[in-house]
Write a structure and sequence with these properties.
Layout: H1 2-16, H2 25-36, H3 46-69, H4 75-95, H5 100-124, H6 129-154, H7 159-171, H8 178-194, H9 200-212, H10 214-217
Length: 224
């Protein structure tokens, strides 16, 4: 029984010698000893041993699937995941009315994700300006959405409210059509400036920020 285990134990030397596999080598040895039951005589039946083998293998497999889908362990995929969450949040904000309290929660969540994104990029050694500029553009879009919702609520049925509603509809597809969303916001900002409306600057700032970061909103900058 010991002789049959020796070849599998010697494989650990090869795993330890590889710089990308040595971290998991101890896990391999522990799983091997759990599955082998090096005692004599064997007390488990074949079905019990098979069940134990499936359990030991399914645990790491489940963890792998979780990290692939829920929270990726790879630094690049984490950055993409954070970017996706920020952009999806903006689209959902534009699609539904939110109270000022909910907007404060959104801002706090966005600031947290922004800092995590910048921290991740800093550690990777990649250039920061594209990421910081894109993240601040997302924040500008969120502030513009809040202004648009206030306009729609304060002036129902007016041409300005209809323009604000159109801009919000565009922003629900910000990731798919960032240039069109920026154009709609720019035209509304010009309209509001002629009326000397206080929200004109917020909306114009969002339009300029989106225009300057089209690739970020398409998520292409972090996927390449």
């Amino acid at each position: 029984m010991v002789a049959t285990l020796v070849p599998f134990l010697l494989v650990v030397a090869l795993l330890f010698g590889h710089n990308r596999l040595n971290i998991g080598s101890i896990d391999y040895v522990m799983a091997l000893l759990l599955l082998s039951h090096p005692v004599y005589p064997l007390s488990s039946s074949f079905n019990a041993s098979l069940s134990l083998a499936l359990v030991v293998v399914s645990g790491p497999l489940l963890a792998y699937l979780t990290f692939r889908t829920v929270w990726p362990a790879d630094a690049r995929r984490r950055r993409i995941h954070l970017t996706d969450m920020m952009l999806d949040e903006v689209s959902s904000m534009a699609a539904e009315e939110r109270s000022s309290g909910r907007h404060a929660v959104w801002q706090a969540r966005l600031y947290h994700r922004l800092l995590k994104l910048i921290q991740s990029v800093s550690r990777s050694g990649e250039p920061l300006p594209p990421v910081t500029s894109g993240a601040l553009a997302v924040l500008a879009a969120g502030n513009a959405i809040q202004s648009l919702q206030q306009i729609r609520k304060a002036q129902p049925g007016t041409p300005t409210a209809r323009r604000a509603d159109l801009a919000l509809q565009r922003l629900t597809r910000l990731r798919q059509q960032p240039a069109a969303s920026a154009g709609t916001l720019r035209r509304l900002a010009d309209h509001l400036q002629r009326q000397e409306h206080g929200a004109a600057w917020n909306i114009d700032n969002a339009a300029r920020s989106i225009d300057a970061n089209l690739e970020f909103f398409r998520s292409g900058a972090l996927r390449t």
